[in-house]
Amino acid sequence: MRRMRTPSALAGLSLVLLTLVFAVIGPWLWGEEAVRFDPLHTLEGHSSAHLLGTDDGGRDLLARTLAATRQSVWLALLATLITTAVGVPLGALPSVLGPRAARFTAGLIDSLVAFPVLLLAMFAALLAGAGARGAVVGIGAAAVPGLARLTRTLADTVATSDYVAAARVLGAGRAAVLVRHVLPNIAEPLILTVTANLGYALLGLATLSLLGLGVQPPDYDWGRLLHDTLPRVYVDPEVVAGPALAVAIAGTGFALLGESLARASARAPSAPRGEPRTVLPPGCGPLPAAPDAVLEARDLTVSFGGVTPVRGVSFSVAPGELVGIVGESGSGKSLTALAVGGLLPHPGTASGHVLLGGRPLEEVPRRELGTRLAMVFQDPMAALNPALRVGSQLAEVATTHLGASRREAWRRAADRLGRVRLPDPEAQARRYPHEFSGGMRQRAVIAMGLMGEPELIVADEPTTALDVTVQKRVLELLAEVNETTGAAGLLISHDLAVVSRHCGRVLVMYAGRIVEELPSSELRRARHPYTRALVASSPDLKTDRSLPLATIPGRQPAPAEVPDGCAFAPRCARALERCRTDRPEPTAGLACWNPEDA
Ligand code: SF4
Fold this sequence. Notes:
Elements (H helix, E strand, L loop, with lengths): L6 H29 L25 H32 L6 H15 L3 H12 L3 H11 L1 H16 L2 H8 L4 H37 L11 H8 L8 H27 L30 E10 L2 E11 L4 E5 L6 H8 L8 E8 L2 E2 L5 H7 E4 L3 H4 L6 H12 L4 H14 L5 H5 L8 H12 L6 E5 L7 H18 L2 E5 L3 H7 L2 E6 L2 E7 L9 H8 L62
Parallel strand pairs: 3-8, 3-9, 6-7, 7-8
Antiparallel strand pairs: 1-2, 1-4, 4-5, 9-10
Helix pairs in contact: 1-2, 1-10, 2-5, 2-6, 2-8, 2-10, 3-6, 4-5, 5-8, 6-8, 8-9, 8-10, 9-10, 14-15, 15-17, 17-18
Bound molecules: iron/sulfur cluster.
Iron/sulfur cluster binds next to helix 20.
């Protein structure tokens, strides 16, 4: 509220309050005088009896101006209602429609925005017929494209957030995503914009009435009064002053207040997180599953246009096993996790085979996937909808997928929050994500994953945003959940120490491929030169902190620059001639022509 104590905000608020007070008391106090004909005093200028003069019926112009406040504000409200009722759904639709329909809707909005607003208003007003109704429809319709475009921009931002991606994984339909996740999170900036739009609607309606297209006699609003008095402006300028000042005061008040509220708004929607996500099933064909594997990826390849950041990755995870994927940034580990969850960023495509419990991923219905697969994202704040109570978000999983009643779903939510060791879980369930610390949020996200009976938990850098102590507790919790529930786990991390401490097995990725797979206890005896270099550059308790940490010389090639032979060759001290021409295929968990001794 402190940010509302600016001169423009206070001025806007005062002018709006003044307008609203006159809208309430205007017709009541001056209504009768405003319509009283006085043939003896027609078309008079300023006098002690009529401060702003009279019109052609001898009616007092000051009384008519004050009494017209209600009609002017009411019509502006109706026009704004039309704008909001059409503009918000139109703008929000592209964020939940399929790509083709979304493109069409977005294109339609952009084309409408290109039309001059006043021209659009006059066109719509003429179509709806001259008079107050036509003016309201015209002004309301003219503001639709602007509001729709703003809504689209805001909704796109929310639609790409992790909690919407999570909701989609959990099987939420388009309408549910729109109503439950997108609209509540863009409501605040939209309400502020609508407030400002009220001011513009007032000005627009006054303009249409001034042009003779708006309110028609015997009705009158400020625009109509301007229309009637304007021809006398050079003789008796005071007759125009009343309605002109009223339009300026009210219009400026609403516009100032809306803009000040928008500036003061402390809560902005989540920042865009890369490209919008689309759920793309891998192009799977029939494939025999590894016995007992919860997750099996075979020859999984991820492409973005002509670029292939993940190339033919194969691995499996058994029940109760926690497998880590490590590698430098850009090695393809996170994209592998997203492909496994069917959450590749647009316009990514996946091919190869991903089987969950022996069944091709694309054959697992979304709703079923929501209970069998749990995703834990990097930023827990982004993974939780800030507008909903934590318990409500957890309960939604149970009501949507397990058909639980609301009461049962809340009880289950509190139980799961207790299982991730949040104190007083019933009270925590009633709190909002912003009331949680970072560690508590991540626990809540894990609890959300446990609302079903997940067979697989995929955690992508789940502790990056947390401090070291909290990191340790959250990772211990993940490992414990894996052990106690028997779920398979896939932990993506750039931190080798974290993975070696909590995972039984490690997959080392480089330039989109798995170059070595080994038990974490054998990391120090790794045979691939890249794994060795990673271990050497990863500090542990025995590392001498007085010496500079070893680094891997050179840089990982970008996906578009991966060479024909071994991608690590330019950085490898053991590279042979063959390494630069022939790609080493993984054999017994190792892809290297000249490995180190064990
Ligand atoms: S294949 Fe050759 S270049 Fe690649 S890691 Fe092994 S030794 Fe080094």
